[in-house]
Design goal:
heterodimer; A: mainly alpha; 13 helices; 0% strand; B: mainly alpha; elongated
């Protein structure tokens, strides 16, 4: 286990380093002068020069990169050009909203996906199976920037049940979480169905049936428990995706999270904030993945033994 | 069986509208001030938008945008991704180590977020959308082709080609690519669906095509401000996009079953 933990952490460290470099390069890879992009062509030369110095863009790229990485290690993400405030403060302000939305969406997704996927697997080839998989296909095919406005139209504007936008109490969480949760439920339900189908074909299921357990006990205690292991990994991956993939949904609902901050920063051409947002979102994704892998390895000995060999 | 014709018909319609749309007398930019926000009527199937432009005509224009972007992004991503993936698996060594690390890094950043950042920094426009989505898109194909070539490169026919003195390039193109084309085609089909959504997403955020050009994403964005009085502005482009994405995904499912592909890429 210790061996597995070590290799997993090392590879995560590589990824973190790589992501930091990628995010740093984001500005430099783009053709043209980043300062001119940020200030516009009409800016005074003196202003440009001072921004160039403030961002360290007057130095060689490698020096800039090493400064950037050293600052990161001190959790120093730099200053926002627009708000003249440390970026880490701005991000800390926004992060709880994103996390809240991600967790509630995940809960909704699990509550929809596990029953749906199980019914589809148990009643394979029947109406229920087609219904569940049809729902899943729709869920995958409906973009969240369309589903969001439709939900707003029906439940906020016509029925008046929920607020249109913003983060103002539990009611305002419902529609954005439903938008994100349905899309994820669609992916999860497919996974639950296929793994449960695989498990239900195993010998120990036949044994459980043979010793006279009720169908419910067979599916619940012997089937679902084993089928859920791979699902846990996917849930972890999805939580990571939720942290970052909520960018558009947050914009639709004016949800004051990291995603909306990213878009605001892009619109204001506040590139240090854009960089920091992508970095923080990606790092949380990496952390969630590592934690999921470790939990998974702790539960299932096949993983840690298989990988460390 | 009949269910297969529905997606094929819709995707063909999409391609037809995109390729031949400009031969029809469409007026996506024609403004009729008296018809602002008009709901659907007999001589305009889908009504008018907030500037009095016919939504049907703009929908066709949006089909062109999404089709062009989907085709270009998929082509660029497949060529670059497959090249990198094949080379990495075939030559192995430090090249493979490097490629795997780079793929890991790209997988750690949510794709749409990276595309948004690139498109945002490069500025709006259809070319930049294609570039931004290709920067993100190659990774999936690289991972898939790498895994496939790794599994295949020790097969006898490859060894035979090596001992006959075939060059590396020839072996990859003649003896490996044909064998990995089936999973790549399936992956590309699902890829087209996600590019359609991603393009519309970027346009929804104002990072895609610029007015007066139309994209389904920007049409939805324009419509959200008038949802209560003119819901057709949001419903029409969204429905069109959903039907196309649904059809492409259905086709992908069918293809996967038909070609018997297991998309295992680890």
């Amino acid at each position: 286990m210790l061996n597995y933990l070590f290799t997993r952490l090392i590879s995560a460290a590589f990824v973190v380093f790589g992501v930091s470099c990628l995010v740093f390069l984001l500005i430099h890879l783009v053709p043209g002068d980043p300062v001119e992009l940020m200030l516009g062509e009409s800016a005074r030369p003196a202003d440009r020069e001072s921004l160039r110095v403030a961002l360290g863009l007057d130095q060689p790229v490698l020096t800039q990169l090493s400064h950037y990485l050293v600052n990161l290690m001190h959790f120093d993400l730099g200053l926002s050009i627009h708000q003249r405030q440390p970026i880490s403060e701005i991000i800390l302000e926004r992060f709880p909203s994103t996390l809240q939305l991600a967790i509630v969406s995940l809960v909704i997704a699990i509550l929809i996906a596990i029953p749906l996927g199980s019914i589809a697997a148990i009643k394979r080839g029947t109406f229920w199976d087609y219904f569940a998989m049809g729902f899943s296909l729709f869920g995958i095919s409906i973009p969240n920037f369309w589903m969001g406005p439709l939900l707003i139209l029906v439940f906020s504007l016509w029925l008046g049940w929920f607020p249109v936008s913003g983060n103002d109490g539990i009611l305002s969480l419902v529609l954005p979480a439903l938008t994100l949760g349905t899309a994820m439920a669609a992916i999860l339900a497919r996974m639950v169905r296929s793994t449960l189908l695989e498990v239900l074909g195993e010998d120990y299921i036949r044994t459980a049936r043979a010793k006279g357990l009720s169908e419910l006990q067979v599916v619940w205690q012997h089937g679902l428990r084993n089928a859920l292991l791979p699902v846990i990994t996917l849930v972890g991956l999805q939580l990571g995706t939720l942290l970052g993939g909520a960018v558009i949904t947050e914009t639709v609902f004016s949800w004051p999270g990291l995603g909306q901050l990213t878009i605001e920063a892009i619109q204001k051409r506040d590139y240090p904030v854009v960089q920091a947002c992508i970095l923080v979102i990606s790092l949380s994704y990496v952390v969630v993945n590592v934690v999921t892998d470790i939990i998974y390895a702790a539960i299932d000995p096949r993983i840690r033994l298989g990988k460390s060999n | 069986m009949r269910l297969t014709y529905f997606p094929i018909a819709l995707v063909s319609l999409w391609a037809f509208a995109a390729i031949f749309g400009s031969f029809f007398p469409l007026q996506p930019d024609a403004i009729e001030l008296t018809k602002i926000l008009h709901t659907p009527e007999a001589n305009s199937w889908l009504g008018y938008d907030d500037l009095g432009r016919p939504i049907w005509d703009r929908l066709i224009m949006g089909a062109q945008t999404s089709f062009i972007v989907a085709i270009w992004v998929s082509l660029i991503s497949i060529v670059i991704g497959t090249f990198i993936g094949c080379a990495s698996a075939y030559f192995g060594g430090w090249l493979d180590l490097l490629v795997v690390r780079i793929i890991d890094v790209f997988l750690a950043v949510p794709g749409i977020l990276l595309a948004i950042a690139f498109a945002g920094i490069m500025g709006p426009g259809i070319e930049n959308v294609v570039i931004a989505l290709s920067i993100v898109g190659w990774v999936g194909y690289a991972r898939l082709s790498r895994a496939q070539v790794l599994a295949l490169k020790h097969r006898d026919h490859v060894q035979a080609a090596v001992s006959l003195g075939s060059g590396n390039f020839r072996i990859i193109v003649k003896h490996l690519l044909p064998l990995i084309s089936a999973p790549l085609i399936v992956e590309a089909t699902f890829g087209v669906a996600s590019v359609v959504i991603a393009e519309a997403g970027l346009s929804f955020l104002g990072l895609g095509v610029q007015p007066p050009d139309a994209s389904w994403g920007s049409m939805i964005r324009d419509g959200t401000a008038y949802m209560l009085v003119a819901p057709h502005m949001v419903i029409a482009p969204g429905l069109a996009m959903m039907l196309i994405v649904l059809s492409v995904n259905l086709l992908g499912d069918k293809l996967r079953d038909k070609l018997d592909v297991k998309l295992k890429t680890s």
